[in-house]
Amino acid sequence: MIHAASRSALAELRERLNTVLPDLSSVLVNWIPLLRRYEDGSRHRELADELYAAAELLSKQPRLRRALGDPSTDASARADLARSLFSGQVGDVALGLIADAVSLRWSSPWDLTDALAILGDDALLAAAEQDGQLDTVEDELFRFERILADSGELGAALDEAGVPAERRRGLLQSLLGEKVQPITAQLLEHAVTSGRRPTLTLAIDDLLQASAARRERSVARVLSATELTPAQTERLAAALTRLYGREINVRTAVDESVKGGLVVRVGDEVIDGSVASRLAAARAAFAG
C-alpha cells in the first residue's frame, strides 16, 4: 500500500514507464538467470518479471531496502548503487526504471518496494492494452474474483502465508490451466506469490482499478440473480456514467443470493437494489 506522501513519486515513476513502453519492442531485454522465459517473447512481460524480481529482492533484504529507499541520503548515490547491484541482472529498460525509482523521494522504503511491483503490473496491463486484450484481462480478473468470493476455502488456501509460494502458485496454475490469457495468469501468479499483497481479492481489486485508470474510467462490479443481456448491460453502463460523471466499465456476474434487482459496486461505494437487501431491511424493521 503506497502512502499518500509517496503518491507523487509513484505518479512520476509511472510517467517514466509510459515514456519507455512505446519503444520497448525494439529494446533487447536480458533475463534474470532464474526467471522462466515466455514463448511469445513479450518485452512487456519480461520487463514485468524483472521489476517483480527487483521488488521481491528488496522485500527480503532489509538493509538493501533501507539503503535504496532512505530519502536522507544523496539521490544520485542511491541510483548508482542500484545500477551497480542490478547491472547484468536485468535489462537496460528495467535498470533505468529501478535507478529512477530509487532516486525519487519515498516516505518509506516499503513504498519503493511496492512501487516497483506496481510498475510491473502496469507493464503487463500496457501489454494487454497494446494487444487489444485489456477488456478480456479485466473480465478474467473479475470472474476469478467472483470465484474467490464464492469459495472462502479457496481464497484462504491461496492467501495462506505459511504455505510456500511455489505451492500456492501451483494451486493457482491448476485452477487457471489454459482458461485465461497469459497476462492474466502472470498478474495473478505475482499476486499470489508476493508477500506484499494482503489478500488475492484485494490484489485483484487494485489490478481492476489500475486497468480502468489506464483508460480514464472506473469499473462497476454488478451482481444480478440472472445474467444481464448485452442491451441491459449497455443501458446500465450509460446510467452509471451519467450518475458518476465519468465513463463506467461494467463487469457483471450472476449471484443467486441477490434474488432480484442488482448490487452495484463502484470503488468503495455500493448501490444495493437487490430484493434480498429489501427483504432483510423489512425483517429488521418488523423485528424492531
What does this molecule look like?
The two termini are 41 Å apart. α4 (75-86) packs antiparallel against α5 (92-103) and α10 (182-193) crosses α11. The chain folds into two domains: 4-212, no CATH class; 217-287, no CATH class. β1 (218-224), α12 and β2 (248-254) form a beta-alpha-beta unit. Mean pLDDT is 87; it is low at 27-41. The longest helix is centred in the middle third of the chain and has 22 residues, at 109-130. Strands 2-1-3-4 form a four-stranded mixed β-sheet, with helices on both faces. 62% of the residues lie in helices and 8% in strands. The protein has 288 residues and is an alpha+beta fold.
- How large is the share of residues in beta strands? 5-15%
Outline: elongated
Structural class, by secondary structure, is alpha+beta
Largest sheet: 4 strands, mixed
H-E order = HHHHHHHHHHHEHEEEH
- Overall pLDDT metric: 87
Number of strands: 4
Describe the strand arrangement of the main beta sheet, using strand numbers.
2-1-3-4
Runs in which pLDDT lies below 50 for 5 or more consecutive residues are 27-41
Which radius of gyration do the C-alpha atoms yield? 21 Å
Q: Tell me the number of helical segments per DSSP (H or I, 4 or more residues long).
A: 13
> What is the total domain count?
2
